[in-house]
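Sync notes, pocket subgroup
Present: LS, DG
LS reminded everyone that the earlier model was apo-only. Rerun requested with magnesium ion included. Inputs:
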Amino acid sequence: MPRGKSSFICRECGHASPGWLGRCPECGSWNTIVEEITKPSAGPSRAGAVAVAAPAPIRLVDVDAGAHSRIDTTLGELNRVLGGGLVAGGVVLLGGEPGVGKSTLLLQALLGMERAGVPTLLVSGEESAPQVKLRSRRLGGEASELRLLTETQTEVVVACLENLRPAVCVVDSVQTLWSAEISSAPGSVAQIREATGQLLRVAKSKGLALLLVGHVTKDGELAGPRVLEHMVDAVLSFEGERAQPFRILRAVKNRFGSTNEVGVFQMAESGLEEVPDPSSVFMEEGELRSGSAVVPVLEGSRCLLAEVQALVAPSSLAMPQRVARGVDRNRLAMIVAVLSRRARIPLPKCDIFVNVAGGLVIEDPAADLAVALAIASAWQDGPTGKGVAGFGEISLTGKVRYVMQGEKRIQELTRRGFQKVLLPARNGEEYRASGGILSGLTLVAVTDIGEAVKNRSG
Ligand SMILES: Nc1ncnc2c1ncn2[C@@H]1O[C@H](COP(=O)(O)OP(=O)(O)OP(=O)(O)O)[C@@H](O)[C@H]1O
Ligand SMILES: [Mg+2]
């Protein structure tokens, strides 16, 4: 095949230059020039004179959707996030920080599928065969028939896939692949895009379910181009703190299912264990101390109980510290300001540290009230009452606002034996009107943050 001609194009304005430049001479943007390949066309053609046969479109009614039956990955939590399993011809990108357990998760799934009789292939560009063998030993699958290819050239991987025709293939990682067509180094935007493009074509044409591992940059973005996210069918993100055993698998995008579901795993000696009932795994054991508050947060269709912890200490700094782990820093600043102004707690001269136990990252705005309760509890040095939880969004005026799916949150607290919950008035009314069971749980409706702080103790 003739080698393509490479040129360098600015992603912002489309300016073409013969070599790579740090700054586009046309629009002045930095780091926007990427390598592109123009493949010479096969036959003689003149612009506007390409002869093509008119295609016959097929009717939707005639399309066989059965071809898209799901492949069970043997990991229930992974199936849940994928929307019921892998889809033949579907391409999934799995991103995550170094060491979070991406290779472990996918090797575990491959070993399971191989055991279940699904033909699989692992393409490892990052680890040698003995390294993979060592990991499989840890996962209890060293005697597996799983086929392994340690290769980084895209064309060779494609040739192997076309020849071997596995049903599922994992490429670990897409950043190590390189193509002879492109002169940029492996890991560059052009290389990653070319590799993904080539693999995508094989996957779609041969009905192969493809899983690509992608690294994440320091900013939490998938390394290289975001364009990869548009090319693939699903983007999963594997999150968790390395020091903590829990890992959350989330779908950022999914063409074949909801992006609402999360999977929860626990990293153990023998690999990743599934946590099918993760409701209280993120809570610390024992009684709640001063400075903590419990909140039921929604992760997909499940409700987890999270523990927010706060520490408030007089500051000697001109700009007191605000440290947030597991909650958004700007959200924390807002809650602190509202507590100072609307609940008359003098926090401006205090250092404030907030942490969510178990390494969980909360995006649910319903956690606002728990953050405020934890800070109030830390400042007053009195624990939030035993068996007390709270949820609700806090507005700048100090009002505690209605949140979605209050019913599910209340049900979870009831199931876990909580005695009291502070919640937005409308959520309480809604639950009572629906005739929900409370069995020992008292609903305390709070309209503003001052009222919530007063009602905090058990
Ligand atoms: N024996 C063990 N017991 C418990 N956990 C382990 C053990 N061995 C490895 N781990 C965990 O597995 C993690 C490494 O997993 P893995 O190699 O799958 O991560 P990765 O996301 O593929 O990383 P990379 O981006 O470097 O390829 C370690 O950080 C550690 O937490
Ligand atoms: Mg890895």
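DG: DSSP finds eleven helices and 23 strands in the chain.
LS: Residues 218 and 422 are 37 Å apart (CA to CA).
Action: DG to write up.
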